[in-house]
Amino acid sequence: MSDNISLIRNHELQSKIFTIRGLQVMVDSDLAELYQVATKVLNQAVKRNAGRFPDDFMFQLSQDEFENWRSQFVTSNGDKMGLRRPPYVFTEAGVSMLASILKSESAVKMSVQIIRAFIDMRKFISNNAAIFQRLDSIAAPVGAPLVGALDHGQAQDHGQ
Fold it and tell me: pTM for this structure?
């Protein structure tokens, strides 16, 4: 039973990991929820310890990234729509560093679970990289002739 709970938990965590700038990251509000602190409290703790969070650990989304990210949740998550400014996002290293500044036992335990979710996603991507590459290589050649055939078929229909 506990294995099922941890699998569900891991899946929930993985659904909160996004790829932005080619990096897997988690949003400050999602992390705050997981750590059971207010987002403002989490961000204040980070600002007090700014030296521990270089750009490869944490960064704020640009306005374009923010709009793109937010547009993905128009119908699925109203909470994300209420944001007024771009959120901060944390890489795996940033999540690990968060546990050291939040210092509670539950924060440490949660960080371990989050890091495991990042690792599992990395393994999945690595284990399936060949499949993803093959799909990409098949999709491009198949798509081009198909589009050409459809265009050709429409031209014939209009010519009749």
Answer: 0.66
Cβ-contact 98, 62 below 8 angstroms: no
Strand stretches in 7-150, DSSP E: 17-20, 23-27, 58-60, 88-90
Q: How many residues does the chain have?
A: 160
Nearest to 126 by CA among 1, 24, 28, 34: 24
Q: Are 23 and 60 in contact (CB under 8 A)?
A: no
- One pLDDT digit (tens) per residue for the chain, 160 residues: 444 444 447 778 888 888 889 888 999 999 998 888 899 999 999 999 999 999 999 999 999 998 888 877 654 444 554 577 899 999 989 998 888 888 777 777 887 888 888 888 888 877 877 787 777 777 665 545 444 443 433 344 444 4
Say if residues 110 and 35 touch (Cβ distance below 8 Å): yes
Question: Are the beta carbons of 81 and 74 closer than 8 angstroms?
Answer: yes
DSSP string, 56-89: TTEEEPPHHHHHHHHHTTTTT-HHHHT-SSPPEE
